[in-house]
Specification:
Layout lengths: L2 E6 H6 L1 H7 L5 E7 L2 E7 L1 H16 L3 H13 L6 H7 L16
Parallel strand pairs: 1-2
Antiparallel strand pairs: 2-3
Amino acid sequence: MSTKTTIPISEARKKIFQLTKEVQRPSVFYTLTDKGRPKAVIMSAQDFESWQETLEIMNVFPNWKKDIEKAREDYKKDRTISLEKIAAKEGFVLQKKANRRPKHV
């Protein structure tokens, strides 16, 4: 869920502590306006960092949608190799997976 609220900068100035508390909820942000025009956005530092990381990934992998689709196609056609097989080929020895089911006493 994305909650966006638009408020004038003058109102935001009066409620800045309340706004900074509200934007700590996921996907909540405020667009601040001056004379009805958007000027700035207030969002949590965590959401901002997430946006930055997403943009970096999109720049590094500009064809990410095609890459994901190709990976799905390869998986469906069994044209993949497991991490365990790659590690073994490179000479790594992996520990056996622990039994994660609790034993009944």
